[in-house]
């Protein structure tokens, strides 16, 4: 019974990692950038939801919408200010810029709201359902449902819309896409917006589950989401889902059967092992590059 319970817990946290990993993988697929500020966008989404809910006594869905829009707007602003001017610079320059943005968001939020954790309002009363082999809460079911819905919508946007076609074209060949009349800047900004609203949704779902948020809450989940994206195959949307669920289940099983203090180490060890065996990740393919 405990094993099945831990699987449910792992799927719940894994779906959060998957939402965050999708942001990493979409941005990398478009411009080859590891956006290390992505975990902090997730934190800002949770904070935006917290203050909106407190100020206007909002229920769950308006709070979720505000958090997603705030995160999306922040993602677009970061791309415009910090990444676009450096787009033609070496990748190490963009990486340093991403780390700088991450530190700015964390410490800027700490300065604005203070370092103390905030108690997130109970937007939805928690109910447990006993299904025999395991228990599941309504918050976990909501997390599963929203994660699946957002992933389905993302797949529809990427593969069934004009903007999605532009995203795939820019990902394949940015210069050729521009010659064909596609606005590369708008497409990249839209990609950042999509990835960031997923992070905002993840921030609210985690806040509901953990009931506590703080300016540094995005550090470790952001790293684990990055691990999930690389594990599944960076730049591949289904790979982000597989990697997120895999890391979530591995983390909960480690806490249950080995040690809570080793859960983070196990997650990163799995990444090292997988990359030693298959450097491109689970779904990644080796790409040849002409010189």
From TrEMBL:
The chain crosses the membrane at residues 12-38, 58-82, 94-113, 133-159, 190-213, 225-249, 256-277. One of its GO terms (cellular component) is plasma membrane. GO terms for biological process: D-alanine transmembrane transport; L-alanine transport; L-isoleucine import across plasma membrane. One of its GO terms (molecular function) is L-isoleucine transmembrane transporter activity. It is found in: Cell membrane. The keyword Ubl conjugation does not apply. Signal peptide: none annotated. It comes from the Bacteria. It is a multi-pass membrane protein. InterPro entries: ABC_BtuC-like, ABC_transp_permease, BCAA_transport_permease. Keywords: Amino-acid transport, Cell inner membrane, Cell membrane, Membrane, Transmembrane, Transmembrane helix, Transport. The keyword rRNA processing does not apply. Pfam families: BPD_transp_2. Its main location: membrane. Belongs to the binding-protein-dependent transport system permease family. LivHM subfamily. This is ABC transporter permease. It comes from Youngiibacter fragilis 232.1. The lineage of its organism: Bacteria, Bacillati, Bacillota, Clostridia, Eubacteriales.
